[in-house]
Amino acid sequence: MSKRIVLLASGSGTLLQSVLDSSVLSSVVAVGSDVPDCSALDRAAHAGVPTFVVAPSDFLDRASWNEGLLASLAGFSPDLIVSAGFMRILGPTVISTYRGQIINTHPALLPLFPGAHGVRNALAAGVTETGTTLHYVDEGVDTGEIISQRVVPVLDGDDEASLHERIKIEERDLLVSALETFVATGTFI
């Protein structure tokens, strides 16, 4: 049975594009965003993938926004939801409905350096290596069970931008490889 994947993105969509350019494209049933005018939606539309927007400004509060997102997701009956540069924390109703079916990538070797500034925090800590993590989403911030990781060395002279660009290369490959395995087997192993 084919798998149904919904991707969520908030920005330029470069991580999303790596999935759209892969053999996984035929399993992507929708791309959603919290930002009406983001490049990720344009990339999805260009690939022929349906899009949807659940903008926080259209809802009274965070709980209502989560209910709106849940309703939009339900319309696509996803087997897997991928946070691909989606910059919103999912609420408990979304997580409990899709527990074990939501994954995220993070630009650090979790559990080190969770949160929005993983690359910056790794550099500030003076580590010699960092990387990227693919993990399940739970109620915490970057605290879900780790699926897989890739190590990226910190080079002399690295700044946040240069290190993040090298991490993104590994992040894209890690996500696409994991999704190819998921589509073929129904698991990440």
Indicate the topology.
Elements: E1 5-8, H1 14-20, E2 28-33, H2 39-46, E3 51-53, H3 62-74, E4 80-83, H4 92-97, E5 102-106, H5 118-125, E6 129-136, E7 146-153, H6 160-185
Parallel strand pairs: 1-2, 1-4, 2-3, 4-5
Antiparallel strand pairs: 5-6, 6-7
Helix pairs in contact: 1-6
Core attributes:
single chain; 189 residues; alpha/beta; Rossmann fold; seven-stranded mixed β-sheet; 6 helices; 20% strand; globular
Describe the model:
The mean pLDDT is 97. Helices cover 36% and strands 20% of the residues. It has a single domain, classed as Formyl transferase, N-terminal domain (Rossmann fold, 3-Layer(aba) Sandwich). A seven-stranded mixed sheet has the order 3-2-1-4-5-6-7. It has 189 residues and is α/β, with parallel strands linked by helices.
Provide a compact summary of the structure.
This protein is an alpha/beta fold and 189 residues long. It is built from 6 helices and 7 strands, in the order E-H-E-H-E-H-E-H-E-H-E-E-H.
